[in-house]
Here is the input.
Amino acid sequence: MSDKSTLRIWWSAGGLTLVALVSMVFFVAGCGEAAEDPADEEDGLELIAIFEPDPPTAGHVDMTIELLVDDEPAEGAQIDVEPWMPAHGHGSSTEAVVHEVGEGLYEVEDLSFSMPGIWEVRIDVAFDDRDWERVIVVEVEG
Here is the structure.
């Protein structure tokens, strides 16, 4: 059994309020870094992103997204994922592709970080005539 750290990100009308709560979560198989965005009363979106390997490394990375809207699994959402390296002003040479697994789970293929450093994973979600934008900041190792 392995463990992982959970990073919780709260979004508010006035901007991003970042609160890191480190908790140990036990999984039967695999490990990954999770970035979690609990549902906000005003926007209703909870997005949990799990990266494998943990921490992410340069090259291709597996990512799973769990998506809840108003505390219910969001099936049929349109999700776009774009890695972006703000310090260099560029993204990735490959386009990430998102596939729905079911019950609010989505797998991201071809998520690629071309080099180590601080990256943003920009996530756009469309579901039931509602749209959200999220940014998860990750430190990619060499």
About this structure: DSSP finds no helices and 13 strands in the chain. Residues 2-140 form a domain with the Immunoglobulin-like fold (CATH 2.60.40.1930). Confidence is low (pLDDT under 50) at residues 1-31, 37-41. The chain has one domain: 2-140.
